[in-house]
Amino acid sequence: MSTFLTRVFDALDTFDPCLAQLAASLASAAAPVPANERQQMQEAAAHAGRAATKLRRSFDLIQRTALDIVDMQVRVQGETAQLAGALRELGKTVERVTTRQQQEGRTLLPSGIEDVLVRLDESAQLVAAAVFPSAIGGLRKVNVTLWDFEKILWKRYTDLLTELVQEQRLTNDQQATIERVADGIRDGFDRVNELLNTLAEGAFIEADAVHREVGVARQTLATHLDEARGRMTAAVSMFEPMVKEAAAIARAVDERLAELRIPIFPTHDRLPVAGSV
Hints:
About 75% of the residues lie in helices and about 0% in strands. It is mainly alpha-helical and about 280 residues long. The protein has two domains: about 5-130, Four Helix Bundle (Hemerythrin (Met), subunit A); about 140-260.
């Protein structure tokens, strides 16, 4: 299991018991929370529990099937938004109860529940930090552009190659040439995809490492496209439009890679001494 997934599951394993403890405390007959607010808090906690369960299932799916994290980004964002929304409603209700408690000068929110709420808040922050270790701007745009190659162009290539092979319209040498061309292009796009997943996991903490890896991905993609264009001959000209389209997609990917906004969080020993800057 990757370090990223380990952090996510560990954070959820801390969050879920806190939420369950809150639900148990609210269900206790001894809790003097007003009935209306108690119901609202219970509903918000139940909503948060369902959202956390969905989030766990998504990461279980990533772990079991080796799905790309960036491909699951929209789904995960939606589920974390549901979780955040439920916790926000819970917080608003708690704020109303504590305000009323101060105004009336009597205990409406027992210290036991207050302690649970503090632990719940801390564990929710850990979940957020684990799921989104760094707020990278532009990551999804690159991934969407990659899909133009992965889901559309690559299928067209495999369909055409299959048809030509079945109809015996390619010699062995021609087939080997076009497969080398296609595999090289695919390798370039795969390198970019690996980079996106590494960035999504928050694996880099040093600016030099980020610049180096992004530069390597861009250069690898450009090199493979140059090699592909150099291998195009009249014998395999039926694939040339696809190579040109792949080059256009690669340019769009490269432009979006250059626009990535990646926050860097150096380790404490690399931070400058206070007052030295």
